[in-house]
Amino acid sequence: MLLTNLPQKSNGKITGLTAKGKQRRRLLDLGLIPGTTVVAKRKSPSGDPIAYLIRGTVLALRKEETDLVKVSL
Amino acid sequence: MGLTAESSGFNVLNKSFNIESKNNKPVIALAGNPNTGKSTVFNGLTGLKQHTGNWPGKTVTQAQGLFIHNNQEFILVDLPGTYSLLSNSTEEMIARDFICFAQPNTTIVVTDASNLERNLNLVLQVMELTDKVILCLNLMDEAKRKNININIEKLQKELRIPIIPTIARDNKGLHKLKETTYKICNNLIKVKPTKIEYSEKVESAVAKIVPILKANIGQISNKVNLRWLALRLIEGDKTILQAIEKYFFNNDLSIDQIPEGEVQTNGVNY
Questions:
Q1: Which of B26, B100, B129, B172 is the most exposed place for a label (fewest CB within 10 A)?
Q2: B226 and B214 in contact (C-beta within 8 Å)?
Q3: Which domains, from first to last, does chain B contain?
Q4: pTM for this entry
């Protein structure tokens, strides 16, 4: 499933990125590598962006980014 | 020292990066992720002997300072805090261009020891670009507080670069950091970082591109890392062509003036 749909407070494992080019590079640089554990921490009031715990750091990611990240529960 | 003005990218230093290295003082670059205590390391090494300005033509702060070790003066240049050298934000391009074209005599990468994994991305990228790298494991006290134990010996075997644990806030480890920098600059230790190997497709493309680069820019700069440049071209990174034009040929081209790459990225997932 997409990272966007990862339920709040649950853990997922990144299985792949569909992002291309610069955006892909950026996501990889921030530590979103296949095999990485992510936790959906909290939503902003509008539901976008969402804060995720990734490799010991909380990152706020927009839907346009999380739509390009595949995770498994 | 065995360094001449020409070999240390002296002209480029002064013109493009606002760094004046009189009497061939070694130039040390300080790289690192944001929030790793890089500025604390910078202040700990230079004390009050520092001044700030901007990178030429950019609204990004540049700090540089001096430190003395074994009666030798070193110029320390604080690069912008970045997660990468490849995603092409202004800050990342400054850091990349400085390490690639200004050819610092040593690059220190400051990392957060309590969050090492995500920091190693930048370390590996710097290792790919230059051999003269020191890994500074800062915030060791934070790591201890979080019960994180780092097997420095094993990490050193993996990366094959000097690793110095520091607590910059308490001035711990900085002397050893200076000593190691001194040794690298004076060729008392030779660093040969672990080479990152890619798939056969990428490697064979690199093998084809490097000679072409050598023929075209080899005479201008024998120091720039052609393998690394080739990898950037395979990625289709036009900003690196822009940088080559700027630093080697003094042509300031806009990104639209850069021709689309001829590199066939067959099979490279990019």
A1: B172
A2: yes
A3: 5-186 (3.40.50.300), 200-249 (no CATH)
A4: 0.89
